[in-house]
Amino acid sequence: MPLLEVRDLVKHFPVHGGFLNRAVGAVHAVNRVSFTVDRGEILGVVGESGCGKSTLGKCVIRLIEPTDGSITYDGEELIGLRHAELMPFRQRMQIIFQDPYSSLNPRLTVKALLKEVLKFHGMVEPSEMDDRIRELITKVGLRADSADKFPHEFSGGQRQRIGIARALALSPEFIVADEPVSALDVSIQAQVLNLMMDLKDDLGLTLLFISHDLKVIEHFCDRVLVMYLGFVVEELSCEDLHERAEHPYTKALLGANPINDPDERRELMVLQGDVPSPFDLPAGCPFAGRCPIVEDRCREERPPLEVKESGHRAACFLVE
Amino acid sequence: MSQDQPILSVEHLTTSFRTDRGIVTAVDDVSFELFRGETLGIVGESGCGKTVTSKSIMRLLPDHLTIYGPTSRIGFDGMNLATVPEPTMREVRGARIAMIFQEPMTSLNPVFRIGWQLDEALKYHTDLDRAQRRERSIEMLRLVEIPNAEKRIDEYPHQLSGGMRQRVMIAMALCCEPDILIADEPTTALDVTIQAQILHLMADLKNRLNTAIMLITHDLGVVAQVCDRLLVMYAGRVIEEGEIRDVFHHPRHPYTKALLDSIPKSGRRERGARLATIPGIVPSLFELPNGCRFEERCSLSEGRCADEEPNLELHGDRRVRCHFPIESGEPTAAKEAN
Amino acid sequence: MLGFLRSRGVRKFRRDRLAMVALTIIASYLTVAVLLLLGLVVDKDETFERVGPNSLVGFLEEPDIEKRLIYLEFYLDEVYSAADGRNPEAELAAIDLYGRVPVSSDPDELIDRIDPLWETYDELIELYEEDEHTEVADFEERLAQLEQEAEALYTEPDGLLGRLALSLGTDRQGRSIFLRALYSIKVAVKIGLVCALVAVILGSILGGAAAFFGGVVDNVIVWLYSTFSAIPSIVLLMVLAAMFLGSKYEGTLVPVYTALCLTYWIAPCRVIRGEVIKLRELEYVQAATAVGYGRGRILLRHILPNTAHLMFINFSLYFIGAIKSEVILSFLNLGVKNEPSWGVMIQQAKQEVISGFFWQIGAATAFMFVLVLAFNILTDALQDAFDPKHV
User: Does A185 contact B278 at a Cβ distance shorter than 8 Å?
Assistant: First the structure.
């Protein structure tokens, strides 16, 4: 049984406007997304800004209230649980954020931050509190004497480690990592990715890893969901990414990613146009407007996400 | 590269700021040349001084807080931009050296139509009349491949997507046919597919207009795709400079090498492999070490590195600031390198 | 709190020399206010008592001969008419010019001492009225001599305050301008503190709740402050203060408190609401939700403390705002009446100014000006130090 099963998840953000601030429509951020995550697996979610990947991650742990769908975690349905009923899951599922500057309360020292979390869930005896905090801090590669410092005394990479320590404090089994390295410099990015990989192995974590950077996803994840305009357009194993990607959007993403080698300089695959507005979804395939191989049918009918001959799921009429 | 006169030659540029904590030198003795028709990449991590270098050239830094070193020379068309009076600088800025910025959302004034903003630059720097300026604006928008340029010109920035706005920025930068285009992280805020469009556009425009481009970025992938020559900066210093293929294939400074190694490799995936990392963090500009600025994080450092800062020395057509540069021809065998 | 004191803002603030001067000035005002509140220096009755002749000029102005003669007459007459009265002992005992009493309690002795002085006085005044005093060589000397002797009828002034009591002159009832201006510090600080505190606390709670809970709460609060701020604030102040006319609170500080508190919560409310809307979306607030904290805890522990800098700045803005508004209300006769305040003083000085006597309005304005200026400097410095946009 998968640890997490998401079925037909939908999130619409109502848009208010006009006279008396009535709802005049909705941003369709996540559209009928289904996937599973197995225990111990790292599932990547990749897509461009506004594709709904972050909203998806936050919906899964109910930081954002989904509009519709079902989220089953370890056999239990999360949708509909009230604040108190959700509490055990808050301990088991955690999140790491993108921005190392806005993700820490500037008024709390590292110690105060971790203490509050641990105390709130009654995870640790008061007598063991200091030991546990020291253990957490050293585990994420910070010096033990960092405990009494404030967030502004740390660099971006160190702050990101504090964010990881906060997520780990409750000994969760599932972590949503929402662009955890996007705001970091390359050399620091590598440090944090290595740390996350080590922690994953040590603690047997399961991760939903959200990123816009295919290189990072490829390096870090087992499987990847490719999202476009709130839809999952393809789902495949990271090993297959280069050779067996079939959806034209996935191919475009791969083609647009600059390669780190001046000898392999190539015509970057240039997609025309921009992502359509999630406010009015196109009737057909969401990618139809930019797709290099589009056919008439694609503009009228939305292709379902189904298992193709290659053995993985893709949402395209033109893939067998 | 070209044997011509460089269009821009920066010599011993030193830029310091007055801060609450004293004077801090963000760019320290940086020298380089830029030739017509070439794309020079300047890479480095945040705080390495790459943006300050470009803003020093444009003199966009706050005057009352900025101090240029006495030997700083920014040679452009017989002038020294570090010392010319502000009115002369205004003639240069925009017309002869143009700049595009990272944030396409905030670099356009939201209350004016894009046509108005293009027109303003033309009005200031050229003698064209109203109708000619409008024609030229539309032509520029077409040049940067904005569809329906005649219609788009009367739209407001918020009606355009991020990629479109960056195109408008490029159109504005190029409308006076500048000699040099400084692009400060032009694609960092954009998605990869849009980034690909913009890089493609920039490469295309360079070939057509023969503009010299200074591309400032932290993304080595972008550099690999579009640059001819590369300047690597670290903690305010140039630490390596060379032809792009050379630097990528045979990095000679340990920092350049480590930086290249720490990027996840596309396509060649080893499950669970660790990335090569650079331990530690960039030193604070307030507490710079006596010796080599990279010494603390360098895997190849020796006694001398801690006490004596190496000079930027010429090795063939490469410049490297290291006591023990990695020998060329041994790109991977770092151990015996020194 | 410790964290706050170690923060970059505080360090930056402490390096600002002008701000430190301003802070020192404010601290001295506050010290005086505390002493006044504890009743250790001037009490209310003393500010209504006569301390000298009417409309005495302050230390900077050299009184002309006419004024000197008027003052002389006052000093002589005060003791003489008491000693010459029906119940001389009691009347003499009642003379108390802020601690200065007649040197003797024996009426006959005093009358004997004063009689020759009257003679000199009459001679001098005759000379002055005939406009011949400029021709008499020793006129000035005799006048000075007479003044000395008249002064000697009273005991030495009592302590520092006694000496200062006449330093800024007296009003038209012979009350000490200095003492009244000093006493007004208490009124000003009380009004400033109460109104700014209530306004900021009320505004922060309402603004925080509006932003954090959104929906109906937000709509109601926004509607409320939009309505309030649609009324010109001076009109609102006047109406609110006028409601108390005729009630038992008329003339006390209560109408001022009410009017100012009900007007001043709007701006902090708006500012805090905006800030909380911004903070609410920050990732650390989401992280707090992910840990499972309740909404109240998130608002009180993770959001509102991060708006503290805005509360500080608003507090100091409205502290001086309230002091200035009190002056306006009192000037319009809608404010304080039962005790002196700068507004009351300025209001009373209206007629004096016409006759060229500026000591009362000058003193009240100067006392207020220094405090307001110091607070303005402090507010600026606070803004510079704590606003992340000014790095």
Answer: no
pLDDT score for C4:
56
**Residue C246: predicted pLDDT:** 84
Query: What pLDDT shows up at residue B334?
Result: 38
Mutate to test the interface with A, among C284, C299, C304, C391 (most CBs of A within 10 A): C284
Q: Which of A86, A94, A99 sits opposite C283 (nearest CB)?
A: A99
For residue C4, give how far its alpha carbon lies from the nearest alpha carbon of chain A (Å): 8
What average pLDDT does the structure give for chain C? 87
Q: Each residue of A111-139: pLDDT tens digit?
A: 999 999 999 998 888 899 999 999 999 98
What's residue B267's pLDDT? 55
Residues of chain A found within 8 Å of residue B164, distances taken between Cβ atoms:
274
Using an 8 Å Cβ cutoff, are C172 and C55 in contact? yes
Decide which of B43 and C137 is more confident. B43
Inter-chain CB proximity C291 and A150 less than 8 Å: no
The answer to whether the CB atoms of A187 and B278 lie below 8 A apart is yes
3-state secondary structure chain C: CHHHHHCHHHHHHHHCHHHHHHHHHHHHHHHHHHHHHCCCCCCCHHHHCECCCCCCCCCCCCCCHHHHHHHHHHHHHHHHHHHCCCCHHHHHHHCCECCECECCCCHHHHHHHHHHHHHHHHHHHHHHHCCCCCCCCCHHHHHHHHHHHHHCCECCCCHHHHHHCCCCCECCCCEEHHHHHHHHHHHHHHHHHHHHHHHHHHHHHHHHHHHHHCHHHHHHHHHHHHHHHHCCHHHHHHHHHHCCCCCCCCCCCHHHHHHHHHHHCHHHHHHHHHHHHHHHCCHHHHHHHHHCCCHHHHHHHHHHHHHHHHHHHHHHHHHHHHHHHHHHHHHCCCCCCCCCCHHHHHHHHHHHHHCCCCHHHHHHHHHHHHHHHHHHHHHHHHHHHHCCCCC
Task: Give the residue-averaged pLDDT of B168-183.
Answer: 89
Kindly report, residue by residue over C118-146, the tens digit of the pLDDT.
999 998 888 888 888 788 878 888 888 89
Chain C residue numbers with beta carbons less than 8 Å from the beta carbon of A95 are 286-287, 290
In this prediction the pTM is 0.81
Chains that touch B (3 or more CB pairs under 8 A): A
A103 touches chain C (CB under 8 A): yes
Token output for B335:
């151990």
A185 in contact with B, Cβ within 8 Å: yes
Of A212, A253, A262, the CB nearest to B224: A262
